[in-house]
Amino acid sequence: MSTKDFISVTPNAIPRDVCAQIVERMRRSNQLQEGKIGGGLFPDLKKSRDLAIAGVAEWRDVEIALNTAVLEATKRYIREYPQALIAPLMLQHQPPGGQMRRLVADDFATMDEEQLQQLTLTCLRPGHTNLQWYTAGEGGYPYWHCELYPRDTTCETLHRHLLWTIYLNEEFEEGETEFMFQDRKVKPETGALLIAPTAFTHTHRGNRPQGGDKFIATSWILFQRAENLFGAQ
Question: Which of 2, 12, 112, 183 ranks highest by number of CB atoms within 10 Å?
Fold first, then answer.
């Protein structure tokens, strides 16, 4: 029986000094808002101060650095779990001078970095990055939840394929990302990047930090929309 839990943690995805700079900028920022979830503002479920940085000029450098790290980790994830792409998309490939055929899992082991990156960017896209500040003893997201839900009329939330979190500090106790069915707690370590599936199989929660505040960056890796993947039907 396989023991894979499809949860990947990449240590040192972001340098520690860069994480410290992001935390300091968050502390100084006057742009933070009360943290929301998909249905709105529910501090009994999630209590945080959040900063959405997508498209914000003064945070563009941070957004680029985080998305670059996420892309590299996503490629490693796909190489380890190629079914993340080939199972839902039935991908085809035509090698130079060869016949068109379906990609299989073994193809990913020998695929070069340029090919893998092109395939990843063709199939997937980054979500909007959110910086989050959880206050010691009261902040957290202790409600068991997943990342897919049908409330959004644009169906963007149903395009979420993988979730990611980058831990920006570790000067606290507890505060783990806990996965229900995998019976696993991921301990925050500065600069580490967590990737996991978004579906109910990976129902999770963010436990409250104790003895110090917790800072993270988080978002999703989404499928490209159908019109981009398949063209006009």
Answer: 12
For residue range 207-227, list pLDDT tens digits in order: 999 999 999 999 999 999 988
Angle at 66 between CA 132 and CA 208, to 5 degrees: 25
Residue 186 CA to residue 207 CA, distance in Å, equals: 10
| Residues 163, 150: Cα–Cα separation, whole Å | 17
Question: Quick one: residue 140, left, alpha or beta (phi over 0 = left, psi -120 to 50 = alpha)?
Answer: left
Q: Which of 15-24, 84-93, 207-216 has the lowest mean pLDDT?
A: 84-93
Burial (CB < 10 A; 0-12, 13-18, 19+), residue 212, is middle
CA distances from 13 to 63, 167, 184, 194 (A): 14, 10, 21, 10
- The DSSP element (H or E) to which 62 belongs, if any, is helix 60-80
CA 69 – CA 80 distance, rounded (Å): 17
Tokens 């001078």 correspond to 97
Dihedral sign from CA coordinates of 65, 70, 75, 80: positive
